[in-house]
Amino acid sequence: MTLYLPRTTTAQIVEELAAERRSVGGGAMNLVLTLVIVTDEADHYDAVQAATEAGREHPSRVIALILRDPDTEPAIDAEIRRPGTSGPGETLLLRLYGPLAEHADSVVTPLLVPDSPVVAWWPGVGPANPVADPVGRLANRRITDSHRAADPVADLVERVRHYHPGDTDLSWTRTTPWRSLLASTMDQPCSWITGVEVAAEAHLPSADLLAAWLARQLEVPARRRVSTGPGITEAVLYTEDGPITISRKDGRVATLHRPGRPAQTVALSRRRTAEYLAEELRRLDSDEMYEAAAKAMVERLSEAEVPS
């Protein structure tokens, strides 16, 4: 069931949520976090759908702040979807008009699940400094997606320069299957690794992050090569016995080549946004590995820009 509250107030929304909790016997106590989505009209459907799927693993109250015309009179149009309608928790769609978009924290605060973590997610172009954003200040974790920016690499670099514990970006989450496969590959005996190379389509920050992670973990030089995609297409570990290559041309299946051994086929599918989001919601503390890799990426790119 969905309840529509046009031109409403936060007090009225809180009252309706309390009435709903009483009718189901305090359902909000089963929620583990509040997920706040900051989006626009064009992106909100896909974002809420992804949050709904992730909510099956992480029961949460989803609050989608849909920012509308900033030049109109301040107003809130609310849509409340009861638990079970689109997920295990309530889903609130709040359309904010006028200057309310700049004070979204005052709208969100009364609606947070008490005594539980808050996660903020910008599925579109996010702020350069998420912790300075009104909604970001409320959150334990702040998830952005530089992939949506006009210049994804520059967008992530600028955000990393403002890094604060709790920040993360889905460009890092996209590297998880590659990192897992590379780590398991390096668990097997091999000769000394002398360098690494990552190939991917142009302007893909995930590839730069993966290259920086490999260079930092292995303490070897890393090179980034442009391919036709989709996404990351190849990772190469150069060893004294020859290259170890993981190649994925179709975005679904990878082939692992090791010196002196037959090729192996490995599942390495590109995932959906809901899966990236669910992965990030599994941890609500700071991601130190992301911080280290992101800062190493910025350092590598800065060095590459310095003329010789």
Characterization of the model:
Helices cover 32% and strands 26% of the residues. It has 308 residues and is an alpha/beta fold. It folds into 2 domains: 2-169, Rossmann fold; 176-267, Dihydrodipicolinate Reductase, domain 2. An 8-stranded mixed beta sheet has the order 1-4-5-3-2-6-7-8, with helices on both faces. The chain has a 6-stranded mixed beta sheet with strand order 10-9-11-12-13-14, covered by helices on one side. A hairpin with a 5-residue loop joins strand 12 (242-247) and strand 13 (253-257). Helix 7 (205-218) crosses helix 9. The longest helix is centred in the last third of the chain and has 18 residues, at 288-305. It is elongated. The mean pLDDT is 91.
Write down the CATH topology of the largest domain.
Rossmann fold
Low-confidence stretches: none
Mass-distribution shape: elongated
CATH hierarchy class name of the largest domain: Alpha Beta
Q: Count of helices?
A: 9
CATH architecture of the largest domain: 3-Layer(aba) Sandwich
Largest sheet: 8 strands, mixed
- Mean pLDDT across the residues is 91
Order of helices and strands: EHEHEEEHEEHEHHEHEEEEEHH
Q: What is the strand tally?
A: 14
**Rg on CA atoms, Å:** 22 Å
Q: Please state roughly what percent of the residues sit in beta strands, choosing from under 5%, 5-15%, 15-25%, 25-35%, 35-45% or over 45%.
A: 25-35%
Count of individual domains: 2
Looking at how many chains there are and whether they match, the oligomeric state comes to single chain
- Helix percent reads 25-40%
Label the structural class.
Answer: alpha/beta
Strands of the widest sheet, in order across it, are 1-4-5-3-2-6-7-8
First and last CA, distance: 64 Å
InterPro entries: G6PDH_assembly_OpcA (IPR004555), OpcA_G6PD_C (IPR046802), OpcA_G6PD_N (IPR046801)
Domain Glucose-6-phosphate dehydrogenase assembly protein OpcA N-terminal: 51-159
Organism: Thermobifida cellulosilytica TB100
Pfam family, one: OpcA_G6PD_assem
